[in-house]
Every structure is written in C-alpha cells, then in structure tokens.
Amino acid sequence: MRILVTGGAGFIGSHVADLLAGRGHRPILLDALLPQAHGSPEPPEWSKRHELVIGDVRDAELLGRLLPGVDAVCHQSAMVGHGVDPSDAPEYASHNDYGTAVLLAAMYGAGIERLVLAGSMVVYGEGRYECPVHGVVRPGARRPEDIEAGRFEPPCPRCARPLADRLVPEDAPLEPRSTYAATKLAQEHLAAAWARQIGGSVWSLRYHNVYGPRMPRDTPYAGVASIFRSALTRGEAPRVLEDGRQRRDFVHVTDVAAANLLALEAACGRAGTGTLEAVNVCSGEPHTVGELATTLAEVMGGPAPVVVGGARAADVRHVVADPAKARELLGFRAATSFEDGVAAFATDELRDPAGLQT
Description:
This protein is of the alpha/beta class. 33% of the residues lie in helices and 19% in strands.
C-alpha cells in the first residue's frame, strides 16, 4: 500500500512510517515541522529514510499533487497538549480542524476513501465513575476550592459520596475539557460526516498517554513523561501535581504505531462502511502519574518526585481505558510493559525543542 502519513516526521508519525516501510508498504510523509514539536526547521534524521515533503496539511494545492496514487491516509498531524493558555485556540482550530477539513476534501477529490485518524482519550474528559448508590454517574467539573484544599477526587453529583473509577469504553459520554480536546472531538465529527457522505471508512484511534523515543521536550506542548525526564536530566525533582494518585494509561509509541498499521490494513482490506469506528489505544496497565515519576527517577538515579498539589485548569482526575474493543476489532494488544518502556525511556532519544538548536 502507498500511505500518506501527515505529521510523518513527528513523534508518532515517524514510528508509523518506520513500521509501514518495514512491512513492505510505501509511506510518503507530509510534515510542516511546527516549532511546538520540532527543535529545528531541518527534518530529523529518522525521517530522511522515507519520502518526505515539507508542507502544511492545510495546503489544498499541495495535497492535490500528493494524493494521486495513495491508497489510504494516516492523519497524525496536529497541535497537541495543553498549550499555554486560551490564546492558543485559533492555532489549535486551524491546524487540527481546518487542516482536517482540507485533507478530507482533497481525499474526496482524489477518490481516496480510507482514513486512520489520530484520535485522543481527551475527548472523554473525566473517565468513567461508579457510585455505590447511583451506579455509573458523570461527575461535574472539579471546583477550584476543592483542588486548593487537596480534595482531588470528584464526588457523586447526586449524593456527594466517593466514586470508584472504572475502565472507559468507547461509547462513554464525550465531554472535552480543553481547547485541544475540543478540536480532537471536532476532527472525529468531520471525519464521520465525510465517511457517511462518500461511503468511506475511518478508524479513530483514541490514544491514551503516549511516550517513548522521539518525544518533544522542554515545551508546554510535551507530554508528562517528557516533562519529568527533562527535570531529572537537569538534576531536579519531578514536580507532580495533585497528590500523584491520578490514574492514566501510559502506552508506548511502538505499540501505537502497531495499532495504526493494523487499522490501515483493516481499512484497506474491506469495503467502505460509511462510518467512523473509534477504539481506545492503550496498554491495558493503568498506573498513577506518581508511579511514572517515581519509576523514572529511580531508573535515572535522580531525586525523588515532589508532590506539589494544585491542578491545571483542564486536568481531569482519572482516565483509564478499556482495551477490549481494539483487541476484538483490530487484534491489537500492547507489547511493551510499563516497567520496560519507562526504563528504556530514561535514555531514549528525544527531539530538542524550538530555540535550543543553532
């Protein structure tokens, strides 16, 4: 298969491209080399082994030249992370949503009906919770005064009892709580409408907390694993928000690439469905943010993490994924354990942020 990988020089896209080429497919990479993720206007060395086009997914004319002969698109390009503040919103919407709309229109024009989309668990907002009295409930936003007082667990919205967090299935209510999350949900809606209109097929892979080699570092757009490692490299203790007990699913980037390969092969191996199928891409091994910081500090021989309380405005307490649907529909199972992945991450190659290279 010939596959266009948008964001193909980036963290996840580059691993997808490597895996595709290793399986005999022909990736063509499109990347704008945004400074939020890349430390240099020059493409990273790992992307030079593939056919790479430096350009913007919002450039319809460029897409018109690239898409003929392509069998499917793996859409990884996006602005990611919490960002700096709401002033980022126009850039998030432009890159993530307008860019996706331009891509879908160009795919239609080129007669391409297969798309794998980099989705995200952030579309869920808070995870799934169960009250001992009222069953599965949807907690409201956490109050600033509760965060300040160290009350981090969301209570039952009906009786204020403590809640137990549960695995989040794909049919859970969607409630994005950040600008980035809102744009990721909008991407799914755009892609689903496109699939219905043309009879195409879309897989939205809702990534959980991805980490591994080639992550960007020292930037407000980086993931928490990268932020912790940067602190330890400087000889500083990782600073852990809240009480460190917030639960996440940390999934290695090589497993995420494998999920993309499975989805691309599934999309191209069957007739168009006219639907978007969303699946969680996760390790199936929930861990706390505090565990991540502690394990990484031990591996790197650095200072123990410092729990500082507080929370960012868009942070949620627990998001723990149910891996069953990806296993059933794609045959996807993560192969990298938390212990092995974090140990390797201590010395993995990361990309320098904008401003550090000369």
